Amino acid sequence: MKSPGLLGHLATRLTSQSENLATEALCYVLQTSAAATAGFTAMLRKAADIPEELRFDTQASSDADAGIPDIVGYDAGGGTRVLLEAKFWAGLTKNQPVTYLERLPAVGDGVEGLLLVVTPSLRVDLVWAELHERCLAAGLQLGGASGFGEFRWIHVGGRVLGIISWRVMLEHLQDAATAGDDLVARANLGQIAGLCELMDAEAFIPLGPEELSGALPRRLVQYDGILSKVVDRLISDGTAKSKAANGTGLGRSAGTMWWGRSFAISGVTCLLSIDAQLWGYRRYTPFWLRIGYLQPSRTDRVLDRLNELQTDAERVVIVGKGDIFVAIDTPTGVEEATVVESMVAQIVRIKDLLKPLDASGGPVMGAV
């Protein structure tokens, strides 16, 4: 996983209010970069009839339900024309969106106002549906929806309600900053994007009915069966040994969000595991081979031997203080036997790369 940037790094360690941090950073860019602000208002003007020039400011509150929007856009006369509400994983408050919409001017007043909700990409559909439901429950009349994908808007009682993802919004602002040769703004927006990517990765994805059915646990049971068949096959054909170099028996192990079976290949103790963390965040496969399980490792030597695998993104991963994991990919759309054959072949190749002795005759890994 690439670095989330300085802002994302600090947010996870120094504050529990990531949404406020992102909001303040975004408003700072809009207050200091003419290019980014022009690009932002040009984007908003696709949805609502607002002025080309707006002044943006934040409205701080210690009460999450106080009904104070995150960012306000004012026209030249000081009138409120844009309200922006920034979300990561927090739900809508009781004031959103109805109370916020009521604070905006309506077309009948001779001007138009826009309420824009910013969310992670994964939440756009869910939050958009909830916004619609709340407007209907309040008796507000909905017009025709416009926009598509991760930037949409709809007229509600003479005002405009919109939603956009952090990703789309920040990409648009970065393009505007680049076009305006504002490299400082682009760098600042990149920091916000890094924080948003981190929040996207860690956000709770709402449960779907299919996830609570028996399909997911049955599939996990099948994964475990595949793992056992692969290890049994490696041992039966002599590729792997069921005991370490010192005669210690190897077998099943489990830890936080992983479980698997250990064995020895080329004098190195390895663990083939189903690892939820690596599967979810590093590469799309549940199966990972840990090199040097329960052994002191020489990370540099092992990585040197696995050099040809490192050209494939996130195939070889270093975790913690030097634990080395290799992703064991699985073919799709084939029978279980073909999956087992493919995984066995990959581990055999890794065995060939992990020769037991280095050029000087010393061991690559310490014995268990």
Structural overview:
This protein folds into 2 domains: 198 residues; 141 residues. Helix 2 crosses helix 3. 39% of the residues lie in helices and 20% in strands. The strands form 2 sheets. Strands 1-2-3-4-7-6-5 form a 7-stranded mixed beta sheet, with helices on both faces. Strands 8-9-10-11-13-12 form a 6-stranded antiparallel beta sheet. The protein is α+β, with helices and mostly antiparallel strands.
> Would you list the SSEs in sequence order as H and E?
HHHEEEHEHEEEHHHEEEHEHEEH
How are the strands of the biggest sheet laid out side by side?
1-2-3-4-7-6-5
By DSSP, the count of extended strands is 13
The total tally of domains equals 2
Helix share bin? 25-40%
Output the keywords.
13 strands; disordered C terminus; alpha+beta; 7-stranded mixed β-sheet; 2 domains; about 375 residues; about 20% strand; about 40% helix; 6-stranded antiparallel β-sheet
What is the topology?
Elements: H1 5-14, H2 18-32, H3 34-44, E1 55-58, E2 71-74, E3 80-86, H4 98-102, E4 114-119, H5 124-137, E5 142-148, E6 151-156, E7 159-165, H6 166-179, H7 183-202, H8 215-236, E8 252-255, E9 258-265, E10 268-275, H9 276-281, E11 287-291, H10 299-305, E12 316-319, E13 323-327, H11 336-353
Parallel strand pairs: 3-4, 4-7
Antiparallel strand pairs: 1-2, 2-3, 5-6, 6-7, 8-9, 9-10, 10-11, 11-13, 12-13
